[in-house]
Specification:
Strand order of the largest sheet: 1-27-28-29-30
Number of helices: 3
Radius of gyration: 21 Å
Structural class: mainly beta
Helix content: under 10%
Number of strands: 33
Strand content: 35-45%
Length: 445
């Protein structure tokens, strides 16, 4: 069956290559040793360290009134997957529209590779993705972000599909339907609305780790090479949040922000190491936990969830503080110095909030931007709010200092931007845009 699937995939790829050539596009083949030698600039959810920070330097301190230089833009489609960058190529996922009517979508999703310099399509992998039972007004999926490991690209779809692709060609290497193959529940447990699956995969050694759900398999690990199950663990209900990898006193742990708790597992075996409650009425723990070198773990969710910070050590876990004064919904949060920053609020207004990492006391709130996602690089925050306003700012205990802002996107923007060097890639529910954020030579000293 697997050989037949690969033969069909190769045939489909040849057809795609002919179609792409006829359309003036390029299907990229691997370039061998040279490609394998460099790490991707932005390999997966949250970037190189899964914490939405970049080592990029040379960003301009201001922009013209019209915003940063636009390198290119093009239609893409629905979804909230963020954008990966790997040696001149971009990777993301989307759902194609089905005609001009709003919220009219095809029953399929697409993993796509693009030329980073032009936005041209290099290859696409399409897979069925029924909308039955999903709440499209929440924003159609896919919601998860793909992951690059070596020469493979891993992706998850709205209906809990998991696929491994050859990143150079888009050829299917293996795939699983977590619902059909393993009996995972199709939706989160008690969310009143069903947005679809949103777990961005985590790599550990030769494994890929994903939340799944179901008895004894809240979390599952698969061998990257062939998709064989390595381990299953946990009877807790999962939530939309993606797992992170932390190191505690020299021991690596997978942290899973679940429905009503946070759980740590041994990434090699799935053995549960500890658990701490984060009680709430719904499964909507969405934002990614924040881990810092002083062994503090930040967890935040909207509505009745609030924010708690745990101190994790080899001796155990203790809660340092809890507050309802910060409630991060689906945006990104981060720690800079002794402050956590995040866009705090429920369904209504959201304030960019700074809160002390050690005491939980709010340092300040600012309403310059609507509900936002955050990216940190070169001593600056790159802020994208849900109305498509892009901002550049510095933050400190004294407050937010806006350096530049400009409207860039035109529909709801919930996807955190991606930075590779001084190139910024961002998307909303319709388009993908590339911008140049570097300081111009004319303005350089």
């Amino acid at each position: 069956m697997e050989r037949a699937t690969r033969r069909r995939s190769r045939a489909a790829l040849r057809v795609l290559g002919l179609a792409a050539a006829a359309a003036g596009l390029v299907v990229v083949a691997g370039s061998g040793q040279e490609q394998a030698s460099a790490a991707p600039e932005w390999p997966g959810w949250g970037g190189p360290r899964r914490n939405f920070t970049s080592d990029a330097v040379g960003l301009a301190d201001s922009w013209p009134a019209g915003g940063p230089t636009r390198l290119w833009s093009r239609p893409l489609g629905g979804g909230h997957s963020s954008i990966l960058v790997d040696r001149g190529r971009l990777f993301t996922q989307y759902r194609p529209p089905d005609g001009p009517e709003p919220d009219a979508w095809r029953e399929e999703e697409v993993v796509v590779a693009l030329d980073a310099a032009t936005g041209r399509t290099l290859w696409e992998h399409r897979y069925p993705a029924p909308l039955g039972g999903l709440d499209v007004p929440l924003g159609v999926g896919p919601h998860a972000t793909p992951l690059i490991v070596g020469e493979r690209l891993f992706a998850t779809g709205t209906n809990k599909q998991l696929v491994a692709l050859d990143k150079a060609t888009g050829e299917v290497l293996w795939s699983h339907d977590l619902v059909r193959d393993f009996g995972a529940p199709p939706h989160y447990r008690i969310m009143p609305r069903k947005p679809g699956y949103s777990c961005s995969l985590l790599a550990y050694g030769d494994l890929i780790i994903a939340t799944a759900g179901g008895p004894g398999q809240a979390v599952m690990a698969f061998h990257q090479e062939d998709g064989r199950v390595a381990w299953r663990s946990g009877d807790f209900a999962i939530a939309p949040a993606s797992p992170i990898l932390i190191t505690v006193d020299g021991r690596e742990q997978v942290v899973v922000f679940a429905s009503d708790r946070v759980v740590a597992l041994d990434p090699a075996s799935g053995t549960q190491l500890w658990s701490h409650p984060h009680p709430r009425r719904l499964d909507a723990n969405i934002s990614t936990p924040v881990w810092s070198d002083d062994n503090l773990l930040f967890l935040s969710s909207a509505h009745d969830g609030g924010t708690r910070v745990l101190e994790v050590s080899g001796a155990g876990v203790r809660e340092r503080w809890f507050t309802m004064a910060m409630r991060v919904y689906y945006g990104t949060a981060m720690r800079i110095g002794d402050l956590y920053y995040g866009s705090s609020g429920d369904v209504g207004p959201a304030f960019l909030t700074a809160i002390d990492a050690h005491s939980g006391e709010v340092a300040w709130r600012d309403r310059t931007f609507q509900r936002s996602t955050l990216l940190h690089a070169d001593g600056k925050l790159i802020i994208l709010d849900e109305d498509g306003m892009l901002g550049l700012a510095t933050v400190s205990r004294r407050g937010l200092r806006v350096l530049a802002r400009a409207p860039i996107l035109t529909t709801t923007a919930w996807t955190v931007p991606t930075l590779a060097g001084t190139k910024l890639y961002l998307r909303d529910r319709a388009d993908i845009v590339a911008l140049e954020l570097g300081a111009s030579r004319e303005s350089a000293p």
